[in-house]
Amino acid sequence: QVQLVESGGGLVQAGDSLRLSCAASGGTLSWYVLAWFRQAPGKEREFVATITWGAGSTGYADSVKGRFTISRDNAKNTVYLQMNSLKPEDTAVYYCAARTIVTMKYNYWGQGTQVTVSS
Questions:
Q1: Amino acid 31: pLDDT
Q2: Residue 54: what pLDDT?
């Protein structure tokens, strides 16, 4: 069973950058797909970016493509979300999630970290 702990959120201004971290433990991570989701007030949780731990293949939501970069550090068992050119509409609670490579449902979630972008 995988445990996920996010960090790195905060309050920034539009145009600034921020890097989120997700420390993973408790599983054979090469069998997992990690992802970032976000949920803004009054809105449903939405997909942001994903990475397969073994191959490092990535995918992004159209709304963040070209601005956000997901990566992983095998030695630290940590997934990162580098967020550049932040916009007020990026304001949300950001969650790290994991699923095995043979399932489609994300079964493991972190507690979330708040990102607030002021205009």
A1: 86
A2: 86
Tokens of 4: 């996920």
Among residues 109, 92, 94, 93, the alpha carbon closest in space to that of 32 is found at 109
- Beta-bridged to residue 68, according to DSSP, are 83
CB of 55 closer than 8 Å to CB of 29: no
pLDDT tens per residue across span 98-107: 999 898 899 9
How far is 19 from 16, CA to CA, in rounded Å?
11
Q: What is the 3-state secondary structure (H, E, C) of the chain?
A: CCEEEEECCEEEECCCCEEEEEEEECCCHHHEEEEEEEECCCCCCEEEEEEECCCCCEEECCCCCCCEEEEEECCCCEEEEEECCCCHHHCEEEEEEEEECCCCCCCEECCCEEEEEEC
Tell me, rounded to whole angstroms, the distance of Cα 95 from its chain centroid. Answer: 6
**So what's the pLDDT on residue 28?**
82
